[in-house]
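We treat protein structure as text, and this decision shapes the records that our systems exchange. This encoding replaces a full spatial description with a residue-level series of whole-number codes. Below, we set out a record of this kind in full and without editing:
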Amino acid sequence: MIDCAGKEAIDDLFAGLRPAEIDLLLHDWVLWARDDQLPPAGDWTTWLILGGRGAGKTRAGAEWVRGTVAGTPPYGRLDTGRIALIGETHADAREIMVEGLSGLLAVHPAAARPRWEVSRRRLLWENGAVAQVFSAEDPESLRGPQFEAAWADEIGKWRYAEAAWDMLQFALRLGDRPRQIATTTPRPTPLIRRLVDDKQTIVTRVTTRSNVANLAPGFLDIIVGRYAGTRLGRQELDGELIEDRPDALWQRGAIEQTRTEAPPALGRIVVAVDPPASHRRGADACGIVAAGVCEEGVGYVLKDASLSGARPAEWAARAVSLYHRIGADALIAEVNQGGDMVAAVIHEIDATVAVVAVRATRGKWLRAEPVAALYEQGRVRHVGSFPELEDEMCDFGPDGLSTGRSPDRLDALVWALTALMLRRSGEPNVRFL
């Protein structure tokens, strides 16, 4: 209703209300909430909200407790009204979950606000419901009490996450259907991974951008401009659960150290293409990666222009366009799949392009190892961020990607850096077309 109404209609609505009625209207959460801030339907035990900074996770958690205490739809009514509130520390629980701008005291209208007993660390509602505050720093404090609902905040930061969470599960033993909500910025901790994989968990992912209406003007422009695409940005802004694969050739932390805003003067620049075997839906992508090398022998990854589901003429046109846009010296094309057809398709777009055909004679892992060694030696930089390419790099193990798909972006990267920094002239699997 609010989204559909014009400003004048909303002003007229508020003008005809008494202060107490305006307070109730402003605290009608179902009216104002986004869909991802309302509890999911279904038979679940844990509602896990993975969200970016300022995405509205705390508000969703506080409103879930408020709605559950009151029994208002779409929240279920408690039988005994005993709730656990667990923060990273007692101070966090008090300052964020209870007294914060989006905490439990703030989300209630004045007439229905619970009484906060600071010394006893508990909230009391007029209907008899009681919420006790705990610190995840002290898992043993959860050993004695019992509850039928719980809100756990920032579980990704808990020092004793497994122990605190396990003690909470033993304490959730009241009522017909004990439930809990966990709100956190995602981190690849064992607890979060376990919850994501649990069949009794409903996962909601929210981004900082979703809550732009409640953020300071310019916040997204400044922060996104600085962190977009980086591991930190994807975790802290997009709410993504970013994990490293232990046996991968690359690790995200190391890649973050390679970032630079702009390359120096480059001696050679190439665009590498790893063509797909098919353009049908669901087929492998066409890897297109541009890179250059400076006089000091440092390689710079300049662009990932890979695309999926494209016909040969489409990926060839994109590769040629990139070739001219960055002033490349050569277009490196793997010809295992298409042979001379690959160069022919490229030359149909532009016959002046210098195509260097390369043929894979070893497995992907063996070809990628020397390139990974260049990164370990600090000889490669990423100009900006390339989330999808970097995902493949950090998921590429001895058996390939964990998804079983072909690492097409990574293949193109390997061909580009090999041609610039590792390939010796005269090798038999390289030829100009």
